[in-house]
Design a protein that fits this description.
CATH topology: Rossmann fold
CATH superfamily: P-loop containing nucleotide triphosphate hydrolases
Strand content: 25-35%
Oligomer: single chain
Mean pLDDT: 88
Number of helices: 5
Distance between the termini: 51 Å
Structural class: alpha/beta
Shape: globular
């Protein structure tokens, strides 16, 4: 029986780069990774449709030369039906399922991923953020933890070399802690902080 893995870190830690490298490593061994991202992640422009009508986006690392075309999973679609459809249309038999931006998955989608691992014996590797800018768990991340995914933190550090744990959000240069959990953005909006730096900034705002 295969397992579900959750490789998590703050923004800017290289999760997407790691996903691209791992997918390449599978291919180097003659194996087929099915690479997926949430359709909610619109940072890299509008999705395109391939010849089979499947929505295709990108995993794009901050290392600009490192990217990969991936299939986009709609937030309201069954993961099992999606994997089945992509496999049939692309005429592939995946040896591993790899999902970036896993924090955006719904609880039901995460449960289906565990069923893929258990009943289809296909390993599932998820990459994503653990918490929102409000320091609470994303729905997808929370369900991955609850169902026993194998957790693999990816270390990221701040300017002082200390481990970052907070995905802080800034509006007009000021830190904010209220609003919708999902607000797509990159370096222009979010910054990874240590817990001390986060609390220090909140104290200054007050």
């Amino acid at each position: 029986m295969a397992s579900v893995y959750f490789k998590f870190a703050c923004m800017g830690a290289g999760k997407t780069a790691l996903a691209c490298i791992n997918a390449f490593n599978y291919e180097e061994q003659g194996l087929t990774p099915l690479c997926i991202s949430s359709s909610l992640d619109t940072r890299f422009g509008n999705a395109k449709e391939n010849e089979h009508g499947l929505k295709v986006g990108k995993w794009e690392s901050r290392i600009k030369e490192l990217y990969r075309d991936v299939f986009l999973l709609p937030s309201d679609e069954s993961v099992i039906k999606f994997i089945t459809k992509v496999s049939r249309l692309q005429k592939i038999k995946p040896d591993v399922i790899m999902i970036d931006e896993a924090q955006f998955l719904t609880a039901n989608q995460v449960e289906e991923l565990f069923k893929v691992a258990i009943y289809w014996d296909i390993p599932v590797i998820c990459y994503g953020l653990l918490t929102t800018f409000k320091t609470t768990l994303f729905e997808g991340s929370k369900r991955l933890i609850e169902l026993g995914a194998k957790l693999e933190p990816i270390k990221s550090v701040g300017t002082d070399g200390k481990r970052t744990v907070i995905n802080a959000k800034f509006v007009n240069g000021k830190i904010v802690t209220e609003g919708a959990d999902i607000d797509i953005g990159g370096d222009e909006k979010y910054k990874a902080l240590t817990l001390k730096d986060f609390w220090d900034l909140l104290d200054k705002e007050e």
